[in-house]
Amino acid sequence: MKESKLRVAIISAGMITNAAHIPAYQNLKDRAELVAVCDLNPVSAEGTAQRHGIPHWYTDAETMLQECKPDLVSVCTPNASHKAMAMLALEHGCHVACEKPLALTYRDTQELFDFAREKGRVLIACQTLRYNDEYQFAREMAKEGRLGEIYYSEFSILRRRGIPKWGTFHRMDANGGGCLCDLGVHMIDAALWVMGGPKFQAISGASFAYFGNSETDIVTSLKESGAPKGVHNARPYSPEEFEVEEFAAGTIRLENGSQMNFKTSWAVNLPDEYSMRFAGSKAGLALPKMEMYSTFGRYQADILPRVFHERKYEGLDFSGHYYLMEELFDHLQNGAPLPIKPEETLNVAKIIDAFYLSARNGREVTAQEVV
């Protein structure tokens, strides 16, 4: 057990750093010491440091790692640089908590975990949606066998007009993908976690973009695009730069014979939607309402359990990061189980990798093609 505080540094000073990572670490003030933040933009780096009382700020990650020698590093950069920044932090002997997706391909994700194992460090992807009340409940029902064998699941996470416009989400060189990388990756992880982690077998997917680089005067809000707070010194958005998908849909086949259908969007001419459903041999379950569908004697029955929302970080923006960081510190300092396991992240990485290959080629792609 490590009694002293863990020294923490953060790479990138954008929305998720200011609204999620820093508050989650500050919540652990008796266990974590925020020592530095780094961003290529000096205004963002200095502003974040001053805003949160962080003693040091940098524009070069390697210099920060050399001078501050943190124990743990949060990587909050755009997707395309996750791998390089995580590798750099691991090379300097740091544990790493990296925003999702950990990398843009399965092979890069596997390389990162292999390198972390070689260095004897912990690497974890910030798949925080599973900490929401509805998924905690669903996982409990599934583990207790109340759903029986889950043979089908589906999710929809649709923003009618919610393209993130405060960073580089819309650029291929920075993000590597669009709504599937941003929203779908969370839902896929949560669904697989609830189902007990069945292995990915194959996917057929499609992606579309009609509005991102054509609509310039539609009224939207930061909150509707995923940023309830934490946006400071935003980069100017240019629709001409939009290069990724704004709508993605597909079908996933899993090795245990179950199937998952999905759709996700930043922009689509459909109403906003956030839902996930599971069909089991004993009962079905619909989220986020947490309503179960089964039978009672010879009657069909709808069951709506009374779930009291009184968990520790209830009502906080990005509460999943609070739970994740607390459990990560329990692992690092007390030897508790790792909350998000490498094999879970690798399973999701296969799906993301195979989806984009399927969408490009217009055909089903198997797990073997990306491994």
Automatic annotation (TrEMBL):
GO MF entries: nucleotide binding
GFO/IDH/MocA-like oxidoreductase domain sequence ranges: 135-285
Source organism per UniProt: Candidatus Pullichristensenella excrementigallinarum
Domain of life: Bacteria
Name of the protein this chain belongs to: Gfo/Idh/MocA family oxidoreductase
Origin organism lineage: Bacteria, Bacillati, Bacillota, Clostridia, Candidatus Pullichristensenella
Residue span(s) of domain Gfo/Idh/MocA-like oxidoreductase N-terminal: 6-124
Leader sequence segment: none
